[in-house]
Specification:
Blueprint (H helix, E strand, L loop, with lengths): L1 E9 L2 H10 L8 E3 L3 E7 L15 E6 L4 E5 L8 E12 L9 E9 L3 E2 L8 E7 L10 H14 L4 E6 L4 E7 L2 E11 L9 E11 L3 H6 L4 H11 L1 H18 L8 E8 L2 E9 L3 E8 L2 E8 L6
């Protein structure tokens, strides 16, 4: 079977929304051809589940041409499974090494809701995306991260926890009963089948310094278990990101979030403020503070095959 589509870039969100609503989802203005992109069709084969498992899910890929046209070939024998389409923008980065080709960096643009592969027909599915850049001052500031760190302290029953935003992550240090654990929380754009999941939080760079066996008993030190606890502890952070993205999109185009999917294309960590602290023996020292800023892309339709 062939999944055919054409990717468009929304050039005027207000004009597009008016046309989209006025034509019953078949807009005629406010957009242009997107151009080259990568198209993935992820399936729930072989276990009828999109969740990660020890057996990788089957997926199929194709390139959209300069006009945004694409065709993804999926075997007819897979009609009993479900699929979902993910579109990526592509940026080539030169590594500046002799004989080494440029590296492709993929930024997610669009995620469809899942559909039954037996619904696929020869109709060209028109997809419209609107990549946007969030102003730096509308990101998640250091103060909000500190509030989430306090919640983490309570949920994990820690004696102390501190968090700071670096150029690519949230760096955390926690203490309990004399033991110290350091880790980083990396927010990443989600391409999950759960369209409500905008960012995925990953715990990395785990470093544990334990004073003795009593602390091991008091706080499970299995990395996977700690990551699970930390993920639970930072749910408020993920909710904050989701709420801010939704609010900003609604402000730009009221009602569009009920009609579109939202995908995070980029996460940035710009310097947005500074704080002055008096350091004993040194005097006042000024430190830059970063915010976490997410750039969302909205896409329609949600359902490719109704």
């Amino acid at each position: 079977m062939k999944i055919k589509g054409k990717l468009h870039r929304i050039t005027n969100i207000q004009t597009f929304v008016a046309s989209f609503l006025g034509t019953g989802g078949k807009p005629t203005t406010g957009f242009a051809n997107f151009g080259k992109a990568k198209i993935h069709v992820a399936t729930d084969a072989p276990l009828n589940s999109f969740s990660n498992s020890f057996i990788p899910n089957m997926s199929f890929k194709a390139d959209a041409n300069a006009n945004g046209d694409f065709t993804v070939e999926v075997p007819d024998g897979m009609k009993s499974f479900r699929g979902r389409l993910i579109a990526y923008d592509v940026t080539l980065v030169n590594v500046n090494l002799p004989g080494v080709p440029s590296i492709e960096i993929l930024s997610p643009l669009y995620r469809s809701a899942s559909f039954k592969l037996d619904q696929v027909n020869g109709v060209v599915q028109k997809i419209f995306v609107f990549p946007s850049t969030t102003p730096d001052d509308q990101g998640i500031p250091a103060g909000e991260v500190n509030k989430e760190a306090d919640k983490l302290k309570k949920s994990l029953k820690l004696n102390k926890v501190s968090a700071s935003i670096s150029s690519n992550a949230i760096k955390c240090t926690a203490e309990k009963s004399g033991g110290v654990i350091k880790f980083e929380i990396h927010p990443k754009p989600s391409t999950s089948s759960d369209l409500s999941e905008l960012v995925r939080l990953s715990v990395e760079e785990m470093d544990i310094d334990l004073p003795g066996p009593d602390w091991i008993t008091g706080l499970c030190v299995n990395k996977d278990d700690i990551e699970k606890q930390v993920r639970n502890g930072v749910k408020g952070f993920a909710a904050t990101v989701n709420d801010q993205i939704t609010a900003e999109i609604e402000k730009a185009a009221p009602g569009v979030t009920a009609l579109a999917t939202i995908t995070i294309s980029k996460i940035r960590y710009p310097v947005t403020s500074s704080v002055t602290i008096k350091v004993p023996g040194v005097g006042n020292q000024t430190f830059s503070q970063r915010s976490i800023v997410v750039d969302p892309t909205i896409g329609v339709p949600i359902n490719l095959y109704a």
